[in-house]
Amino acid sequence: MLILVGISCNKDDNFNYAKDTVGSSKIVYFPVIATNGDKVVAITQNTTYNEAGASATLNDVTAEYTTDGSVDASTPGVYTITYSAKNAQGFSASDWRMVVVVPTAVAADPVVAANDFSGTYLRSATGITSTWTKVANGVYKVENPGGSTGVGLYVVVTNYSGTNISIPDQQAPDFGEVSSSNETYSVGPPATYSWKFLAGGYGTGLRTFVKQ
User: Fold this and answer.
1) pLDDT of residue 26
2) What is the per-residue pLDDT for 18?
3) Is 107 helix (H, G, I), strand (E, B) or coil?
4) Separate counts of helices (H) and strands (E) for the chain
């Protein structure tokens, strides 16, 4: 990505410009970065996490990037890793990954393994849907968990026993600090669930969804 800063031209302009300039204006190239692999991944506790990294470019040339965050594979939880690249002018771009360390007992639970809550759920109060995607046994990537203005925004949801669901404490790049309370899930049919979505600006009301 690039931008031209302060362009001016007239009929007497000389177009033999210095590198990375147009006339008296300097071309500013902005970094582009994308996470390699899946944005949400899961590993079993006490196994090895293999970092896939990211790909960064500046003016279509491979660029360096920095990584913020780490994964403790011995401790269950949701870990956020942020990848950032910066240009010479200080403009930056970033992307992210959330890594879920799943407790050993959960990974071996046959009930959790058989569950698949993937699908689209409608929140009738708003007429807006939320989409669940199963990432691994007991782990889901959920789009628009509030069932309101969060289309295209994600959190991690866990199902670590029976039909119990939860948004475990996490630093979700799309929402900041987020969690849930008062969760219930019924397989139906139709399947339904409710929770209080605890994120900035969402209030504390109970939100109910029905599978479509």
Assistant:
1) 72
2) 46
3) helix
4) 2, 19
CB 170, CB 142: distance < 8 Å: no
Using a 10 angstrom Cβ sphere, with 0-12 exposed, 13-18 middle and 19 or more buried, the burial of residue 41 is buried
2-4 β-sheet, strand order = 2-4, 25-29, 21-22
Euclidean distance between CA atoms 1 and 20, whole angstroms? 13
- Return the biggest CA–CA distance within the chain: 77
Cis peptide before 173 (omega within 30 of 0): no
* Closest alpha carbon to 137 in 168, 106, 97: 106
Residue 97, token pair as written in the block:
């990954």
Domain-terminating residue out of 102, 126, 149: 102
Residues 89, 185, single domain; the answer is no
Over the chain (212 residues), the average pLDDT of each successive run of 10 is 45 50 68 97 97 96 96 98 95 96 95 98 98 98 96 97 98 97 97 98 97 98
Expressed as residue numbers, the domain containing 91 is: 2-102
Last residue of one domain, picked from the residues 54, 77, 102: 102
- Are residue 145 and residue 87 in the same domain, yes or no? no
**What pLDDT, on a 0 to 100 scale, did the predictor assign at position 73?**
98
**113 shares its domain with 200:** yes
In this structure, the strands spanning 21-22 and 25-29 are: antiparallel
| Tally of structural domains, the chain | 2
